[in-house]
Each structure stands twice: as C-alpha cells, then as structure tokens.
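Q: Convert this sequence to structure tokens.
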Amino acid sequence: MILVYISIAVIVASLAYLGFVAFKTFKAAKPSIESLQETATKMQVKTNAIKHETDKLTIHQQQLMSDFEEKKKAVNTVVFSVKQTPVVFKNALVAKPVAALERQYKVRQWKRNRKNRMAQTQS
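A:
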C-alpha cells in the first residue's frame, strides 16, 4: 500500500511541476503575445487607412472620368456640328476684302452706265 501512496504522491508532484512549468512558460510568452497583438492592431489600422485612401481615390477617379466624359461629349458635339455645317455657309464665312467688293460694284456700275449710254445713242 505504501507503493500506491508513493505513486499518488509522485503523480501529484508531477502535476504540480507541470502546472508550475506551464505558468512559467505562459509568463515568459506573455510579452511576445502582447507584442504580436500590438503588431496585429497596427497592421489593422494601416490596412483600414489604406482601404479608406483607396475608396477616396476610387471616388476621385470616378469624378475625373465623368468630368472627362462630359468634356469629351461637349467637344464631340462641337466637332459634329462643324462637320454638319454646309459648304455654302462655310464659304459665306470667308470674308472678301472690302476693296475687292468695291471694285466689283464700280465695274458693274460702269458697265450699266455704258450700256445705258449705248442704248441712248442708238435710239
């Protein structure tokens, strides 16, 4: 029976030693675990900041794209309008110098007057 008591005492002593070693190991590992938790928290904060910046950049990119599309549409509308302008209207926009127009007017007047004089002398 003494052997049973000694065996029980050895088992209790080994369990007590196991508990002591486990507590010592936990106590030694606690700073490392806290350091890992702090690192994980910092990484989470940085990840959230990057996600927030990504969202802002996506919104800004969408605004730029819509602005670009509006301006592209405006330019294309003007280009289409210019392409649809008839040739006659384009020629009307080309201004002739006033001196050339006056010369043509004077030549027409001179021819009309000459024609009238010729008609009067023949009658």
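The longest helix spans residues 2-84.
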